[in-house]
Amino acid sequence: MIAWDDIYKVITSVFPLYVALMLGYGSVKWWHMFNPDHCDAINTLNCYFIMPLFQFNFTTRVNPYKMNFRFLGADAISKALIIITISSWAKFTTKGNYPWSITSFSLSSLSNTLVVGVPLIKAMYGPFGENLVIQSSILQFTVWIIFLLLMYEFWTANKSFDSVVTTNVYTRDLEGNNEEVTSIITTRPSLFTLMKIVGLKLAKNPNSYACFVGLAWALVSYRWHLKMPSIVEGSVLIMSRAGSGVAMFCMGLFMALQQKIIDCGATLAAFGMLLRFVVAPASMAVSSLIVGLRGDVLCIAIIQVNL
Predict the structure, then answer these.
(1) What's the sign of the alpha-carbon dihedral 11, 14, 16, 18?
(2) What span, in angstroms and rounded, lies between the C-alpha atoms of 190 and 153?
(3) For position 6, what pLDDT does the model report?
(4) Domain boundaries, the chain
């Protein structure tokens, strides 16, 4: 049975996040404090400085040698089930298409694990739950974000290939007659080329560096029991502590800049909610039962995909 004290802990942990969101929304929509250029500057600060250090800080907390691989396996199986379902929908139905497959995979598989997940799960399940959420975040950044980018680049390449550009070249034969020769540009990019493009995009994303460098430090520090120098730890913490608040503030800015709160319309919003709050937890529940998750780990696995 859920006690009132538990409910109060959850509200206490999550409510400040939505205060930051409403401040961001109100600063643009109601008080007109920021224009779009100001919002871009705030988002740039968040993207290149605050969130990478926020990601790095949490990644270094996890012991890579004591990860819950059954939990991570359930997460991987869940996403594999979603990929198979979406691929079948895109291939065998008239309404299915590749762009919507990418969007559907993102909505039903990728979650806001660190910003919202850490304070929520920590309030509900303590440090144990926080650790599992961070593990899920590491897997998301090192595997599934790369997979999503690869899907997007594959779609972009196919789109360019399908809209073939043709040029008409007119030449004269020996008798002086308008012979028309049609030339086509037709080279489809290889998988290696697409992987190279994805790699370059990841190289420009500071969050990728943060996750991989943080994981590398965790591997070294937990292997040889090293402690991060205080001067480095303090430099990371002074920016990363603003991560949750600034991320939610930026989300509020983004919402305020839209013409409508639900800019895509009620139908697409309902479809997105179906993917996030029905498909995602259902697939995770099935995969968790397949690998044999029980108790609090099962609850955490299902809750964190809804975030």
Answers:
(1) negative
(2) 11
(3) 74
(4) 4-155+214-304
